[in-house]
Amino acid sequence: LQSFICLPAAENLSRCPTSKGGIIMALKEFEFGFGHGTQKVSLPEEHILDVLEGNPTPACDVKEATLECMRHPIGSKPLQEIVSKGDKVCIVCADVTRIWNHSDQFVIHVVNELNLAGIPDDDISILFAQGTHREQTPEEDIMVVGEELTKRVKLYQHHCMNKDELVHVGDTSRGTPVWINKHAVEADKVIVIDGITTHLFAGYGGGRKLILPGVAGDDTIQINHCHALGEKFGSGINPKTRSTLLTDNPVSDDMQEASDMIKPCFLVHSIINSEGKICAMVGGDPYKAWLEGTKIVYRIQKVPFKAKCDVAFACAGGYPKDVSLYQGCKCYDPSDVVTKEGGIIIAIMEASDIYEPPAYMGSFKYDTEEEMEKALRHHFTIPFFVAFNLFCMTHKYHIILVTKPENFEAIKKTNQTPVATVEEAWQLAQKILKDQGKDDYTITIMPHCAAIVPYLKD
Fold first, then answer.
1. Which pLDDT score, from 0 to 100, does residue 274 have?
2. DSSP of 328-381, one letter per residue?
3. 58-64: long-range contacts (C-beta < 8 A, 24 or more apart)?
4. Model confidence pLDDT, tens digit, residues 333-343
């Protein structure tokens, strides 16, 4: 005699069980960020292999932590001792695609600290590090630095294609011509502002990336990023240029050389916990403080998984991390680590700005990986590379993308299968599993996929 015990609602279990060989299984509900809202799905609990989240780290008092990192910095004198009255200070600040760093909560304290050092607002400017991204709207400026600063200091947008705004400051040892926005070059002191997290091919974001690609010219950016490909055709992506890898990473090393040409005087960066809140601030020497920050990020995001799974639920984490397919694609890399080849990845991102940047979606027009790599090597662009990385993955896994219905036609061109809800995605995944003859499948859940670094336990 078999029986099923309905657990209390507090256990978050469904009363509508599924069957496995005649044995009743409980369903557990999971909730995923989707744009500004959420989506839910109930999954058979016995098949759940791992639920991967960053290591619990409490949020900090942002003002207190920001002041502390500026007054007791890493590898540097305090900020007030580095700047002098009469200095023209340019704050290079990550743009709206990085507002997960909550820069609007701490840039104000940096400006106020400069005021205490004798630098008036009139001698301070903020240059947004858009790289190849579009110009921000006034509303987005407020989202990045807060309304007060938009009224107090000069704001500049970076346009990587406008050569009139660029100055050639030298070439790197790898032959990259370094063209940088004149507002950064002409300033007496440059401060870099961002948050630190892992990066698909630069190892980690932040630090030197505020200069290259942040305020660099288009040619500089594209030549630098070409190092993300292997040396020979057919080798695909350079294995030295992957998430968390910094040693002998040619993309990162080239970026650092470019940054050193500008010589930023100070860095203030946030570190974000698994709940999306600031849990630490690092400040000081633009390289040493950033490097220490990467170690903190690794400790927070490094999570063990038991084994590779058959189905991975990979959520970008909601807005702004899923504002576009281009931004949300950061969730694919951890999925690649935890999923069996030929397995199913259910990616979850609203992608309300699906065509940003325009060059990204236009890159999905090739039938084979070889054709795409050949074209990419002929004319490398960042959006093209990111598209190539995803295209390669779609030939290795079944990728189902939960997104807005109006995105469906565009998504089909990427070789992914679009659906409107996580529930639909799960139903489709079950059909694929059935066709594969897999009854003992395993599921891994990653609610904030872009904020974890999975590693195989033992």
1. 79
2. HGGGHHHHHHHEEEEEEEEEE---TTTTSSHHHHTT---SSHHHHHHHHHHS--
3. 58/273, 58/279, 59/273, 59/275, 59/277, 59/278, 59/279, 60/278, 60/279, 60/280, 60/281, 62/102, 62/105, 62/106, 62/109, 62/270, 62/278, 62/281, 63/106, 63/109
4. 899 999 999 99
pLDDT digits (tens, 9 = 90+) for 122-181: 999 999 999 988 899 999 999 999 999 999 999 999 999 999 999 999 999 999 999 999
DSSP codes joined into one string, 394-457: HTTSEEEEE--GGGHHHHHTTT-EEESSHHHHHHHHHHHHHHTT-SS--EEEETTGGG-EEEE-
pLDDT at residue 21 in the model: 55
CA distance 389 to 113: 42
What is the model's pLDDT at position 19?
Answer: 52
Residue found under tokens 């670094």 = 453
